[in-house]
Fold Histidinol-phosphate aminotransferase.
Amino acid sequence: EHISSHLQRLWSPEVRTLEPYVPGEQPKIDNLLKLNTNESPFPPSPKVAEAIIKVLNEHAEPGNSLRLYPDPDASALKQAIAAQQQLSVEQVFVGNGSDEVLAHIFKAFFIQDKPILYPDISYSFYPVYSQFFNLKVIQVPLADDFSLDVTGYQQPNGGIIFANPNAPTGVFLPLDKIEVILQQNPDSVVVVDEAYVDFGGQSATSLISKYDNLVVCQTTSKSRALAGLRIGMAFAQPHLIAALERVKNSFNSYPMDRLAIAGGVASFEDQAYFEQTCQQTIDNREQLVAQLTELGFEVLPSKANFIFTQHPQYAAMEIAAKLREVGIIVRHFNKPKIHNFLRITIGTTAQQNRLVARLGEIC
Ligand code: PMP
């Protein structure tokens, strides 16, 4: 959307320099198959809706509980998360989606004299926040096979952030490599963004008690199918969580609304449903990889709820455009090194069969 420089004169100079962030599109098309923003194809645990409806009916009039402010500490949610993660409540921070949690992390730890480091191919919000907070950045190139080379991550008194599994590649970095990064950087906070860790990856939360410079960030948006409820969390030793709480309290002392707290608690209490839908996503991923390989696609090894793939004979942008004509949306990044790749979210078997049938016609 174009806003004239005359109207932009009312903006702060800092905001005038910001490029608008372009999230994955959310078009309204009939019979749309949306495989572009890594949402879950499965509904959340049925207990989530039950818990939310209960909150709405708590007082005599429907919705009357919404008159009241929520618990500023979201204690019930922190307790449910801590129990599921086998952490103490003091090691848990919650916010409105991990995008907000990441903003607090940048503010709390990365505004330093020294640069922050992240991979040159990584989650697109890191550059956005870096620009917003005026940070110096070093983008460390991934290896040719898209793996992260830990030797490039040495940064005293700065910060380090990477997604694991990485976005948009889906490639997973084993925990022993993460330990090397933590040991190389005792005076920098190292943030592991685990938005996609529940689909066969291994979480770095097991390292929290060992490293006082580690922050692990997770979300309920993917593996718990709650992208619409906006619940993100960070795990770390209490001295780092305390810094995040200070930042949060200076912006908004109510991180979560009543419905999100109730729905989130119900989700974390339903471990069986969570495990079952994560396993189904992994099974569907393996099936999609096999189907695409059959069509001549090359697929990077993924531990996420998406795959990153290219076809040696067909341009990714053209494939994406042709899919769009038939109401199937996948993600294409017009960026160096990855412009011939497509990122495709794992769907239900029926959705994936529809995709594969179309790809068979295109390729
Ligand atoms: N981190 C990564 C790597 C992501 O891909 C996403 C989702 N776009 C997020 C964080 C943010 O997720 P949410 O704000 O929905 O928790």
Notes: The radius of gyration is 21 Å. DSSP finds twelve helices and twelve strands in the chain.
